């Protein structure tokens, strides 16, 4: 009976005793048994986990074809276990406006999507529709292109934001169900959709150029 209460109810996050149980058991157990989790995360706290994220997380992904969890999903589970304060989460998200560590931003966006109330998720994540930084994603299994195995693909932060707000699953993780935006608007919990201004022709050209050069990868220091 106790185990049934611990498992996540994806339609009502308030019923979850521990946020870590929002990760499905098979993935959670693989993470906790992984060498990366034991070596880097087992004894971390809210402060010491940040250097691990910024130094070790260089792409987004869940598990590979062999079931090995990525540093991204390992750090995500550890954040759920630690349940940092809202002030710490907001600081990690915005990084004092520096935008230096994009994978830290992407990880915190996922944490917010899973943990925070619906209205806060929308108002906090929607501004990232105007963020076009490149993100590297690990493929579940490699694909062959011109005889070479490709292990990663490129996307952008605005696409990641859209997936978090609209998909039922990202990187093999089931997301809690979201109340539709128009319902929250009718209840007065959020304002009208803000597209953050009209994108200029120069910005469109800049984004098209970045997409055309998708073979080039960027590090967090770029």
UniProtKB/TrEMBL annotation:
Subcellular location as annotated: Nucleus
InterPro entries xref list: PRP38
Principal localisation: nucleus
Superkingdom of the source species: Eukaryota
Keyword Nucleus: yes
GO cellular component: spliceosomal complex
Sorted UniProt keywords: mRNA processing, mRNA splicing, Nucleus, Spliceosome
Chain intervals for the UniProt region annotation (Disordered): 200-222
Biased composition (Acidic residues): 212-222
One Gene Ontology biological process: mRNA splicing, via spliceosome
Function, as annotated: Required for pre-mRNA splicing.
Protein family according to the UniProt entry: Belongs to the PRP38 family.
Protein's recorded name: Pre-mRNA-splicing factor 38
Organism: Debaryomyces hansenii (strain ATCC 36239 / CBS 767 / BCRC 21394 / JCM 1990 / NBRC 0083 / IGC 2968) (Yeast)
Lineage: Eukaryota, Fungi, Dikarya, Ascomycota, Saccharomycotina
């Amino acid at each position: 009976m106790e185990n049934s209460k611990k498992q996540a109810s994806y339609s009502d996050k308030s019923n979850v005793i521990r946020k870590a149980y929002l990760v499905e058991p098979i993935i959670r157990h693989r993470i906790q048994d992984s060498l990366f989790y034991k070596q880097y995360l087992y004894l971390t706290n809210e402060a010491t986990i940040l250097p691990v994220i910024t130094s070790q997380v260089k792409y987004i992904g869940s598990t590979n074809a062999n079931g090995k969890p990525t540093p991204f999903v390992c750090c995500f589970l550890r954040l759920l276990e630690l349940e940092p304060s809202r002030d710490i989460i907001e600081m990690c998200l915005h990084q004092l406006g520096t935008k230096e560590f994009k994978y830290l931003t992407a990880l915190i966006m996922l944490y917010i999507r899973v943990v925070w109330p619906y209205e806060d998720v929308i108002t906090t994540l929607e501004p990232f529709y105007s963020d076009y930084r490149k993100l590297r994603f690990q493929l579940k299994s490699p694909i062959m292109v011109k005889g070479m195995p490709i292990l990663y693909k490129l996307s952008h932060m605005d696409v990641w934001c859209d997936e978090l707000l609209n998909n039922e699953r990202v990187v093999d993780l089931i997301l809690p169900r979201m109340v539709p935006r128009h319902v929250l608007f009718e209840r007065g919990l959020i304002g009208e959709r803000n597209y953050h201004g009209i994108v200029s022709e120069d910005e469109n050209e800049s984004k098209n150029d970045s997409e055309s050069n998708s073979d080039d990868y960027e590090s967090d220091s770029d």
